[in-house]
Predict the 3D structure of the following.
Amino acid sequence: MPKKQLTGIIVSNKMQKTVVVAVESIKKHPKYLKTFKMHKKYKAHTDELFQAGEKVIIEECNPISKDKKWKVIKKI
């Protein structure tokens, strides 16, 4: 089964080998059918240096730590 990939913006790069990526998704309310934006933050593993505000693609991986289950694939 292919691994999930998400696109988001780096919010924080203050940790060693870890960045926080904010991912935005659009959902539709089941009853009222209004569309709205949802935001979720993921901690992702990286060996490269990234700046806050850069757009990246993250991919699922085996758990690296308690919170890190994603890794940065590439910068867009």
Notes: Strands lie at 5-15, 18-28, 35-45, 55-60, 70-75. The mean pLDDT is 97.
